[in-house]
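Hi there, hope your week has been kind to you so far. Please have a think about how the structure follows from the sequence. I've dropped the whole record in just underneath, so have a look:

_____
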Amino acid sequence: MSARQPYARMAFRVANAAAAAAVAVAATNVAGHDIFSASKAEPAPAPSVGIIGTGWGLKVQVPQFRKAGMHVAAIFSRSQARAAEIATANGIDKAYSSVAELCADPAVSLVSVVCPTYERCGYAITALEAGKHVLADKPMALSAAEAEQMLAAARAAPDQLALLDFELRAVPAVQHIKQLLASGELGAPLHFSFRCLGNFGFLADGATYSHWVTREGGGGVFSAVGTHFVDLTRYLTGREVVAVSAMQHPLVDSMPDPKTGTPTP
């Protein structure tokens, strides 16, 4: 990745769900003025959230947003019936099967875009163009070209928050390491090595072919965790990536199609 890639020039600022809530409640944007209330003399109300995504968005963000004092006003699913079922089961006000309609809802002020990567660019831009603040999951997009489109949409809406969700920055151990590096106590970092030991659902026994395992869908282990490693290197050092060398080694040759069972590469 060269310094010309979106990581080096993101207007989408970085946050996690809890950090996004804190930022939103503080109601300060890049210009330093209140974005949720007309008067700074009064505390800004916590934003109401519309969530595009029923996986991470439902299981992790809904409880964390509520813990931070935010109201989850709407949720999106491709199926209206499923959206309604999820909304009812989780105490969410409204259910949508249209992203445009969710983004047009005046009760929603912040849209969390936690859909599959290949859908992220279009949905984030739709939310920004509808006048909403946006928290987009990582990776930012399928390509540098898509990320540039999101960047342009964010720059065209300077009074709206555009946040990118790299939640590992908020881990206390990571923040402590950053403080140690900044203090100079450890000297200049010369090498970072990351290891991940985890059970990924898309590689589990019985897992089927999905966007999680396709290049076209933005899937794979690098999408799931490798993007965090790149971001943590930037965050901890304050430096940008200027060159990349990589090797690809798929862990499985094929996975069964969820409908037919046919092995799919």
Q: What stands out?
A: The CA atoms of residues 142 and 215 lie 9 Å apart.
